[in-house]
Please model this.
Amino acid sequence: MTALLTGPGRAGADGRAGVRIGLDIGGTKIEGVALGPGGAVLARRRARSAEGVRAVVEAAAAVVDALTADLGTDLTDAPAGRPAAVGVGIPGLVDPAAGTVGDAVNLGFGPDRVPFGPALSARLGGVPVTVENDVNATALGARELLAPGADLALLSLGTGLAAGVVVGGALLRGARGAAGEVGHLALDPRGLPCPCGQRGCLETVASGAALRRAWPHGGEGRSAEHLFAAAGAGDPAAVAVRDAWAGAVALAVRTLALTCDPEHLVLGGGVAAVGEPLREAVAAALRAQAAGSRFLRGLAVDERLTLLPTGTPVAAVGAARLGERTGAP
Amino acid sequence: MTALLTGPGRAGADGRAGVRIGLDIGGTKIEGVALGPGGAVLARRRARSAEGVRAVVEAAAAVVDALTADLGTDLTDAPAGRPAAVGVGIPGLVDPAAGTVGDAVNLGFGPDRVPFGPALSARLGGVPVTVENDVNATALGARELLAPGADLALLSLGTGLAAGVVVGGALLRGARGAAGEVGHLALDPRGLPCPCGQRGCLETVASGAALRRAWPHGGEGRSAEHLFAAAGAGDPAAVAVRDAWAGAVALAVRTLALTCDPEHLVLGGGVAAVGEPLREAVAAALRAQAAGSRFLRGLAVDERLTLLPTGTPVAAVGAARLGERTGAP
Model:
């Protein structure tokens, strides 16, 4: 496997043309990949995540060390046997320019932004580290794997609801880092309170957490599979919950189509584990909403809907690419 | 004035570095400008518009001829005394690649797309013509005049409701030409039918036409000024109509901020003639919607709201730039 590292793309004198490591840091696990200069996955590691800034830095560094060890002698002619760059996808409020992270609740990071990128870089002996929001990293990885060259939005159906948008080959971050934040579009003044402080946000009706609230069956993290199985078996209560929830997700998808209008609209996040029945339910809601409108039918939003593949470390691959795109400091 | 044309920027052998003409074609008038190589407005013309494809081509060509004549001898060393390029902003469904236009109801264009760009180019003896949706042309002009270098969305409050979005220096057109079409986000299943075939679109509550429906006073095209004057004078019915309408416009603005997140959010279209009271009403609605949300307040959407200046041929300037950006065929 490491033989792929030889050849003209091998790490140059400054190490920047060499191996890039991408980390997808979540509340339960850290997924890591090492990409060769041509983009091939040379090594892959998965480890348990941690809680608190220091512990997460240490756990992330351990994954980088393990991947570096996996690559063995092929890194020895890079400066100090290090990767050229490390990219990190992480939940919470991320400032990619400063490498700071705040409000990553599942990782035990508080509201104050902490310099996660600089801390990891220091722990790794100065390897350049780029930090990005996990949804944005996933969007970059999805573009790489599903739609090279085309614009794409990745709608993440997890605890929250947010999209990563890639247009013209680059992440759309927005002037205030709010690009793709459709989950906090407040549409129903009589709706549920949202953690963001508004009421009736799309996130309160179209996220994984909203689905779990509406269908609290199947145990931790399994409510979506349970709901779609029950609806598929014809349970009328499950069908009603599924269709209402899918209609709200379809509204989030339409919002992306009528603003950024990317060619590919990709469903990801924890609920994507449901697979094809999820895509079918949302596509059916999109078709129903478009039935009376030649304009909307012409946009064929339902046909542009795809699922993020499971079992592939999409976010980690995107994180590795992120380092490449942003360049080393 | 034409002396500005001399110097190093003068039209080269292929004519492409020379004078560019921009046309803003509306239902009542055609506005035209001639821009020098450095971007200065060298000449400006306004003419009555026409109805039907042939008549509109002829009226547009007459404006180009008049601007060319205004420039006099300064064009005589360009090939055949012609401008380097003509850009056109026009309402309706525009395919910029083919130069076709359809559904431009105010110009008497039917649903079938007609090759407007090629027809105007032929009438002008082969001058390259680029055609773009009028809202997009206005967005390009607004960026030029208000926010060079920054991303911008221009929300046009006219008969319809649509935005032109400029990110990374380029128009965001979208995979199906639907970028910025927030007006057709259907949010209220019990709302009014929309010309697009859906029900409860933002356009049915937040456009100039929606305002006129809610406040049918002041005569043709003056209902917005009438409403804001009456509300400003304290008429409670006018205050209620203004605030409900401004709240719907604020929702369209927030939708742009939470998807594309451009630094500048500019209100344009016929209603923008109201001026500062319009901006204040929408900004107040944005502040009220953000009051309970630290997240939303942090985005400072109200502070990013500006008005398109009136009396400046923004759309025609943007149309002229369009020719430049797209390049001559």
Remarks:
- Chain A has a mean pLDDT of 89.
- Residues 138-307 of chain A form a domain with the Nucleotidyltransferase; domain 5 fold (CATH 3.30.420.40).
- Chain A touches chain B through 47 residues (CB under 8 Å).
- The longest helix of chain A spans residues 236-257.
